């Protein structure tokens, strides 16, 4: 199985979720992260002190899929998450050796 | 005094409306507190306590990082308890017992000789007890203001010890000198005052003492770890704004309550306070807008508080139009102090107690000398000539007392129980270290 | 007028208790503000300011998404400063100077000719200054209400400019027409009023003007990005409830304070306000329970505010039992407007200013015509006949003025500085974009 | 009564100042509410409502886990609406109609026969309507206190049903017995009282009834899932402290308002309340510091509330110095109950309603018997002898009524609609389950 | 070494932690995530607008263990986290090439 | 490519970020996590009930780098994050098969 980790802009989550659902992928895990990269942050001033917030809010989507689905899923995510502006984010793909569904002890592709 | 005539009894009743002394004195059939004035004094007292709990606690608490929010709340709560106890024990008596020009005496210790129906200690128609409670609320908020400058890096035990000493050396004497009939700086009430200055609601007693003490204390304490390197933004501007609103509303008790009756002077003080604060907030934010590009919520809040501080000594002495003029000064001069002066000098006045209360209080004391108007308040008349000079003398005395006393007390605390927590403790945050609690547990 | 006799002096004192004019007029020995009434007026003024800072700021602030909470707070703070300045400059005078039936004049500009001891401008025993400040708090909260409808998508600069224009075109004229002795719609005080309507505490002046203006403005502004697609839940129901509690408590100043004295009418207004709000909250929540399955905190809060809005024009004119009946209307009709009407028409009244204040204010104006009772308030007697018709005329005039003026002003702002931020800015949130701050920094 | 003489009219005016009855009775030319006293009563009423909305809501709301915060807010809002409706319908009449020693009658149902100008129902110079509203605020907060003990695990529907029944069986009878001129335990006003006890502002009626009912109800309800195993820390100590500040300030209305006039007794009650609360907070925190190693914000807050509870029945009867002594008892005894007794007995009094209000209320009732002083309040004189015994009898009757009635009502609710949500619902949290909302949505 | 990622129901965290401790695993990293899958969410209504919250709060446990411990640890987690109801979550296993203890520069199994 | 996951003490984030920047690594993803391990937590008391918080706040840094950069990056992180006190944290290294820049569809080392 493959684990697809996508770092995307927060407001793109719904679209990405839907496009994955279209592929029949109805499970994923999402977390709030802060991203640092080319995209520039904003400046905040509180009385005397001014500073730039360069860690920007991003959403990280983790979805584990069967090998054969990986490419399709990746493509769907990239397509849905794209705005063309700096800061759209990344997708990383790696291997997962085993998956288990806690409720049923099912393993492998059946687990996801 | 035999029993009063019908006319005298009518005069007594009219005296109540006009908030002046009962012509028939002890013989009066209405020696009790006057309901309207006493009601307003109770309301004002409640409002000023509200300024500290929870007003100031939120204003300051929102400005620190989340890991230290409870240390601010505990400071306000601890000072409320400690000062209330001291006030009952001897603080009220040391402040308002006749004593000498510089300090009172112990004649009212533990409220000795005071009665529920007693009036006259504060003013003609308000209960002596309420007068004592009203003044207590001032005695509570003043030290609490100081610890904005030292936020995020002073041990709770040190805060408590410093406060206990500071009340005796700075606050009780200052309250006596400025507001007691025998006080050295009490122009309106003491014909023999050494300095014939005026301070309507505490520009010197409250804001200058706390502001200047804060400056010295935060210098002796040293800056927070990482000051100037790591960002230390307010953890909740929402709390800051809520606290500001409470301070604003409570301040009507602070200033209009200082008229000691629901009379014309109270009405004037209420009005000048309302206008000066609202407009100073706008001015501060506009200054930011022009000089920094954006008007901020913290700018509005800072300006409102600065406006309240500046009008405090003047509220019952100046016209609404003077208050509007003072609002512009209040919105600009503390703004400059906070934005630029602090950076220049490099001290870590964490929540700008000096910038707002020290600078603003001093500014207010000066402008009071400039704008005080006999047409607004008859006590100004006889004092007007040479008033500005007197104000400067009062400022000088207040600054010297605050600075010297604070330095001495700070070093006493430093070399006994110590002022600061360990570096690890400061990094972890004072909430868990000093109080064993967290401000928020949201998951 | 020579010096009054003992009997006249007693009559003056009795007039104070009964909150009527001093029989001996200028000769009276008690021309100052009357302590009990003036104390209540100061309290009421503080309470109504508390409704805006921080009451409304929290009620509205909690309803938006976290990224826009400060934009609401800044709106409330900015309006407070701006309107206070305008009020002192000429707003009070344009509202309450005699002028003509539709607008006042500049006779009191910069509070010209007003004195600390002056009384009678508002009512017999309250300070003229406090009357001006009490009215100022109404002038502050009214425009602030509007921007609930436009929340999360209107530039701060546009909010300020719109407010400045709207005060002159809508608020000052409305306050004059409804509450000034020379006003076109002032039934109780103006014998020559064109429309002999009654509005105890601002159903038309405050809630209808803000509610109807809000509807037009949010339509011209257009919906928020993603409206109807992405969920936009309140970021803090806790703030919403805190704000509701503050609005509720502050509203006693708004309604009972509008009696302009701590008298029988104030007591009646206090009671009808208390009952109508509490019960309307319950009714709204029960309606939700039956129709949507669950009673929500937002339902209780919305019902309380709706109850307060509906009782506002009636508070000093109707019996407690009528107030209970009005509570049922207040809990159901705005509920329907918010739940169903809005969906039907599809405009994005973000925080339901129209649904609650527009609909509720109009409902209240009508029910005031239905339930006003001469036994409660003697001013009703002579006006009762044809009152309902007069109320409808007043409603018509208020709606037309609000709608037309708002449309014109909105387009002026749109084509000068613009109404909305860029799409990226709206997406990022107004707090960082317009104010350079974040509401919460918890880590 | 013919028209009064000048002297009688002067006496009436003096009676207003002194807050005693008008000598000329019905003939008096000043039969309306007295402005100063009535103003204070309106302020007090607003302050006590503020204690519940949002004071208690925040104090309790901050103490629960985030997933249940709205269930606390909804409880406070729901009770406010329900009790207000019942109060208007018959509750006020059942409490203060003459009826018999144990319960009133329906003579004032729907405020029948009451008028805006009416006075005397509560006291000489306050409006009857305001008296009814003032008492309503007590009737609202009392049941709300109970549900601190049952927090996080009781269905909203069960809370509402329990409250409706409990008001009729416990609250209305208790209010009648203790505060009505015909009441069985009303020492000051009822010469034929079976138990000549005194309770200035509600030690028995409010705190003991709610505290003891809370104990029984939480035992019948059973502990929260995972109680004693999983940690259940307060989700926001900041809210807890804000709520405490509001309770403290509001309590001035509760206690000083119970003087029913802005007079000497009100001043005394205000002062004892201020000192007892502040010092009890300090004592509780010091006890923690010594016994647990750290003074906590929750300790300060708990002590302040305990101090307020303990002084409530005594506020207008004891000297400030007695109040300071009572503060030490208030800071230590409830502290022990909460820290150790609860662990020993093992019941899940979630927010320590019993520990603070039950224990504190009982302690206060006893200490009132010990410290009540005729020099403070003349009503004490004739009752002083045998007072302590009377206090114990009143305590006994109150405990028995609260315990028995609560047990019966709890079982009725349990076997009709049920008391607790499902396990899944309790785990998910009551906010989404009962109200379909979340307290905070910060991302 | 193996990295075990477990997505579980929040209230199961303590049990899972204890059962790992029983295996002598005294280190782990935990984060709050939102899960999307078969388990249905709840509906919220705010005045006019109603919507379903389908991202449910979950806890993600990351624990890196020596290869030989992986199976035991996985079993322990599955056992402790199971309620048998939909939404119990998943366990994913993948390979970690190297681990370093920052404090000591120790690497490999000694680092964890 | 390699994925470096570092669990560090929160106040070390800035230093770690800067030391990575010195290597020309200008992209990373950061999240707040809670750590459980040898480092002891603190105790909290709320009225009667006392409990120890043994999950400590940590920061997790995820950075994907080209293979040749992995060692240098790891070293830099370890160096910057070290205090020598218990709880400094861990670094874990694993393989990432593919990376995609959403904005440009670039893949591989060019994507990061
Ligand atoms: N080397 C990296 N490792 C992990 N995450 C990265 C890396 N580089 C970028 N990211 C994540 O991707 C987000 C977007 O990257 P950025 O350089 O800002 O824009 P773009 O994706 O258009 O190149 C960053 O905020 C960060 O969260
Ligand atoms: N393919 C997947 N990749 C990553 N996480 C998943 C995946 N499928 C499910 N999850 C996570 O597991 C959780 C439980 O899955 P769900 O389908 O709701 O129930 P069950 O575990 O009983 O099948 C989800 O909330 C989600 O966090
Ligand atoms: N086996 C592990 N798997 C994942 N994370 C771990 C593991 N062991 C420790 N950690 C993380 O490393 C942090 C520090 O570990 P700890 O044992 O407290 O100190 P040290 O790093 O000095 O050994 C822990 O808080 C936890 O977040």
In a few lines, what is going on in this structure?
With about 110 residues, chain A is an alpha+beta fold.
SSE map:
The complex is a heterohexamer, with 3 copies of chain A (112 residues) and 3 copies of chain B (443 residues).
Chain A: E1 2-8, H1 13-22, E2 28-36, E3 42-46, E4 49-53, E5 56-65, H2 67-81, E6 90-95, E7 98-101
Antiparallel strand pairs in A: 1-5, 1-6, 2-5, 3-4
Helix pairs in contact in A: 1-2
Chain B: H1 6-18, H2 35-63, H3 69-96, H4 128-146, H5 156-179, H6 203-221, H7 237-255, H8 264-292, H9 297-311, H10 320-345, H11 353-371, H12 380-384, H13 387-416, H14 423-428, H15 430-435
Helix pairs in contact in B: 2-3, 2-4, 2-7, 3-4, 3-5, 4-6, 5-6, 5-13, 6-11, 6-13, 7-8, 7-9, 8-9, 8-10, 9-10, 9-11, 10-11, 11-13
The complex binds adenosine-5'-diphosphate (ADP) (3 copies).
Structure description:
- The complex is a heterohexamer, with 3 copies of chain A (112 residues) and 3 copies of chain B (443 residues).
- By secondary structure, chain A is an alpha+beta fold.
- Chain A contains 2 helices and 7 strands.
- Chain A has helices at residues 13-22, 67-81, and strands at 2-8, 28-36, 42-46, 49-53, 56-65, 90-95, 98-101.
- In chain A, the strands form 2 sheets. Chain A has a 4-stranded antiparallel sheet with strand order 2-5-1-6, covered by helices on one side. Chain A has a two-stranded antiparallel sheet with strand order 3-4.
- The radius of gyration of chain A is 17 Å and the shape is elongated.
- The N and C termini of chain A lie close together (10 Å).
- By secondary structure, chain B is mostly helical.
- Helices cover 65% and strands 0% of the residues of chain B.
- Chain B contains 15 helices and no strands.
- In chain B, helix 2 (35-63) runs antiparallel to helix 7 and helix 6 (203-221) packs antiparallel against helix 11.
- Chain B starts with 5 loop residues before the first helix and ends in an 8-residue tail after the last helix.
- Chains in contact: A-B, A-C, A-E, A-F, B-C, B-D, B-F, C-D, C-E, D-E, D-F, E-F.
- At the B-C interface, helix 1, helix 2, helix 7, helix 8 and helix 9 of B face helix 1, helix 2, helix 3 and helix 4 of C.
- Strand 2 of chain A pairs antiparallel with strand 2 of chain E.
């Amino acid at each position: 199985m493959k684990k697809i980790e996508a770092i995307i802009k927060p407001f793109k989550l719904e679209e990405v979720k839907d496009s994955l659902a279209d592929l029949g992928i109805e499970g994923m895990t999402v977390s709030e992260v802060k991203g640092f990269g080319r995209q520039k942050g904003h400046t905040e001033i509180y009385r005397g002190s001014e500073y730039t917030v360069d860690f920007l809010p991003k959403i990280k989507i983790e979805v584990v899929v069967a090998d054969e689905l990986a490419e399709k899923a990746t493509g769907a995510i990239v397509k849905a998450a794209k705005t063309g502006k700096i800061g759209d984010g990344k997708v990383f793909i790696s291997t997962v050796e085993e998956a288990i569904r806690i409720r049923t002890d099912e393993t492998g592709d059946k687990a996801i | 005094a035999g029993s009063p005539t019908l006319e005298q009894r009518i005069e007594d009743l009219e005296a109540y409306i006009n908030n002046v002394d009962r012509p028939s004195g002890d013989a009066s059939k209405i020696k009790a507190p006057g309901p309207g004035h006493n009601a307003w004094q109770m309301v004002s007292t409640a409002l000023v306590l509200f300024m500290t709990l929870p007003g100031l606690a939120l204003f300051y608490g929102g400005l620190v990082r989340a890991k230290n929010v409870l240390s601010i709340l505990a400071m306000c709560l601890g000072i409320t308890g400690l000062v209330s106890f001291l006030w009952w024990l001897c603080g009220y008596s040391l402040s308002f017992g006749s004593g000498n020009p510089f300090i009172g005496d112990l004649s009212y210790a533990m409220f000795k000789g005071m009665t529920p129906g007693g009036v006259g200690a504060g003013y003609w128609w308000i209960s002596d007890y309420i007068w004592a409670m009203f003044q207590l609320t001032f005695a509570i908020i003043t030290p609490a203001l100081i610890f904005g400058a030292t936020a995020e890096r002073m041990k709770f035990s040190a805060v408590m010890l410093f406060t206990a000493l500071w009340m005796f050396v700075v606050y009780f004497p200052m309250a006596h000198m400025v507001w007691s009939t025998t006080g050295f700086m009490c122009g309106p009430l003491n014909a023999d005052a050494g300095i014939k200055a005026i301070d309507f609601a505490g520009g010197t007693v409250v804001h200058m003492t706390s502001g200047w003490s804060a400056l010295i204390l935060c210098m002796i304490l040293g800056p927070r770890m990482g000051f100037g390197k790591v960002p230390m933004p307010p953890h909740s501007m929402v709390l800051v704004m809520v606290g500001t609103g409470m301070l604003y509303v409570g301040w009507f008790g602070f200033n209009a309550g200082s008229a000691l009756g629901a009379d014309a002077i109270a009405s004037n003080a209420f009005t000048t306070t309302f206008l000066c604060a609202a407009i100073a907030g706008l001015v501060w934010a506009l200054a930011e807008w022009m000089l920094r590009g954006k008007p901020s919520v913290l700018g509005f809040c800072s300006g409102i508080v600065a406006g309240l501080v500046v009008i405090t000594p003047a509220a019952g002495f100046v016209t609404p139009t003077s208050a509007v003029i003072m609002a512009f000064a209040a919105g600009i001069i503390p703004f400059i102090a906070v934005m630029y002066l602090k950076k220049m000098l490099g001290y870590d006045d964490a929540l700008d107690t000096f910038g707002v209360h020290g600078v603003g209080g001093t500014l207010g004391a000066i402008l009071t000398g400039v704008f005080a108007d006999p047409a607004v308040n008859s006590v100004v008349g006889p004092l007007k000539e040479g008033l500005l000079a007197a104000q400067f003398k009062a400022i000088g005395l207040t600054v010297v007392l605050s600075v010297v006393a604070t330095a001495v007390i700070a070093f006493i605390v430093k070399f006994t129980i110590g002022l600061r927590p360990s570096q690890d403790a400061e990094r972890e945050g004072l909430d868990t270290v000093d109080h064993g609690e967290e401000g928020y547990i949201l998951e």
